[in-house]
Amino acid sequence: MDFIGFMDRVWKVTARTRQREYQLKKPSGEMRSGFLRKVYSILFVQVVLTAVTSAVFMYFESVRNFVHESPALLLISAFGSLGTIIALTIYRHQYPVNLYLLLGFTLLEAVTVGITVTFYEVSVVIQAFVLTAAVFFGLTVFTFQSKRDFSKLGAGLFTGLLVLILAGFLRFFLHSEALELAISAGGALLFCGFIIFDTHLLMHKLSPEEHILASINLYLDILNLFLHLLRLLEAVNRK
Asked: What are the transmembrane regions (predicted)?
């Protein structure tokens, strides 16, 4: 499921190039607090929709069998996500189109993740979910309390994301458990860094108008962290 990592790069690169255009000089504390509430409310809904969809795919045998017998469904959800995320870069400030696109994108990503988890043991999926929630909460609290400037991490993180995507393609040609373990562990660490980076941008850099951008940033970070932890746990359990 390196497609979600690719999606993350497409979105972040586009958003990064347009960030200065919408950044305010110094939003008030009240405005920033309202912005944070809006972003995390949207993010909560996105995560709940994804978790519920994944649970339906995992626990209902008829749905699971349909998914396994319909490989085209993954392609539809993947390319549909790509289309909606491109549209969101253009229309993310146009209400209510931005909300419809955000809902469509979230549902398509939820289907992609739901398909993925059907190929893993339920216990492994639950472990990955709990770990992801704990790590995200811990990193969020750390970033909120820290006075460091984490925006300097951007160049290194984007380079690491490109390397990770290239390594993902390499995995199709070199079937190695060691490579799988390295990619999974490296990917999990990379998206821990992105959670810190994007949370810092949310707190200090982004305009209060950018609630769509901020929520998708964190949503994709969470999905990628979850999927890499899922593969990491699976690789460890095989040994």
From this structure: 39-60, 72-91, 98-120, 126-144, 156-175, 181-200
